[in-house]
Amino acid sequence: MSSNPFFKLSRLPLALRGAIAAAVLLAGATAALWQSGSRADEAAMVLPAPADDQPKAVGELQTAVLSGGCFWGVQGVFQHVKGVVQVLAGYSGGEKATAIYEVVSTGETGHAESVQIKFDPAQISYGEILRIFFAVAHDPTELNRQGPDEGTQYRSEIFYADAAQQRIAQAYIAQLDGAKVFGSPIVTRVDPLKGFYPAEGYHQDFLVRNPTYPYIVFNDLPKIDNLKRLFPEDYRDQPVTVAAQ
């Protein structure tokens, strides 16, 4: 077990996680207050807009499926993005039968913790979704990990739904790598979407429901702050939640 009080408890049985989480919350709350700033200055930056993107236009809702570490934080970020109408935490990359948190957490199912983002293409484009994904939702240069979480289930990956999404994603990664905007090459995978399986109910809206949970305070709330600071035109204060739909 990690000695870091802000680790995710992802590999422990559910009952034991609950007991430990309560103890961690009590022991780590004070530490969280003074350490939270250490994540706020992580490598979040305004990135150039995608050179290849679809123009905004009135049409049916579109869907993006992205993986960038723990789905709590990625879901939380996109719940605050204008034009997004729903964000589900879930699993992609493996089979339906193994889309179970305790099984996915072994790192042996092929799944990645993912989010399914439904958005209005008249308000935000797929390329703009990816821009926020790379800029504030996660670090695309970390291989098979994000922050304190390690394993292939925490990999950076874009699951494209069609040829247009594939083209935009691959072109944007090439654009960012070519401009050397990050200190290391982007390791984000781009693969076809074969299935998305919503996570268990207790994972949905986790950031919104648990804003004082140490893991959230230390790892994820700074992402919301960065979204508001770097993309004020895309930020909305009231998140869209699964519970409200």
Explain briefly what this protein structure is.
This protein is of the alpha+beta class and 245 residues long.
Structure description:
With 245 residues, this protein is an alpha+beta fold. The protein has a domain at 47-208: Peptide Methionine Sulfoxide Reductase, Chain A (2-Layer Sandwich), CATH 3.30.1060. Helices cover 36% and strands 16% of the residues. The protein contains eight helices and eight strands. It has helices at residues 14-35, 37-40, 71-78, 101-104, 126-137, 163-179, 206-209, 214-230, and strands at residues 62-68, 84-92, 112-119, 145-146, 149-150, 156-160, 189-192, 196-198. The protein has a six-stranded mixed β-sheet with strand order 7-6-1-3-2-8, covered by helices on one side. The protein has a two-stranded antiparallel sheet with strand order 4-5. Helix 1 (14-35) packs across helix 8, helix 3 (71-78) packs across helix 5 and helix 5 (126-137) packs across helix 8. The radius of gyration is 17 Å and the shape is globular. The termini are far apart. Mean pLDDT is 88; it is low at 11-16 and 19-41.
Q: In DSSP terms, counting alpha (H) and pi (I) runs of 4 or more, how many helices?
A: 8
- Number-wise, the strands total 8
At the first level of CATH, the class of the domain at 47-208 is Alpha Beta
> Which oligomeric state applies?
single chain
| Poorly predicted tracts of residues | 11-16, 19-41
